[in-house]
Design a protein that fits this description.
This protein is mainly alpha-helical. The protein has helices at residues 12-28, 30-43, 83-86, 89-96, 104-110, 157-170, 173-189, and strands at residues 49-55, 61-67, 114-116, 142-144.
Length: 215
Amino acid sequence: MTIKLLPENTPFIKRLLDLIISLLALIILSPVFLLISILVAILHGLPILFRQKRPGFKGKIFTLYKFRTMRDLVDNQGQLLPDSKRLTKFGHFLRSTSLDELPELINVVKGEMSLVGPRPLLIEYLPLYNTDQARRHTILPGITGWAQIHGRNAITWQEKFALDLWYVDHWSFWLDIKIILLTIVKVLRREGISQPGEVSAERFTGNPDDPPSDG
């Protein structure tokens, strides 16, 4: 595993915080990792980890790691069933407690993500951002962020992007500490897990009133 000691455009104090907390969490929570891995293998099958390509800093693609929360159920034509049909009770528990995101600590250690920053979204969204929204990729993506403690998946895409950009423009070490502490509170309360009628959040389909960014 390649570890970037100081990823581009990342302040030293932010990277130091990322490494200290992530490495300690990986060590302290190793029994939790083992237990979840066993249960995922039994209830969801292999592989244990969900891997998906996501855009990071400057849109550079990396592999995001999560615990699997769904089974690979298909219809008569061999097509995957909707997420709501494949999400298990254990998978819902993992999502509601954010335990499914623990493997992202590996992404943080590698320097592909930070503990705090705009969430890494789908690659297909890249050409849909307007010029201002694309600025969310001028810093490392995060496990949690300013948008996550202000509604997470229960707010609109426009609200999420506005909160992401506020963080980009107002970052500080103490702001990161505040977000981490408030994230713990939000997780314990299980707030903002999904939008009404959705497993998590509706898909982003662009800004009809704005011109898209160039990438």
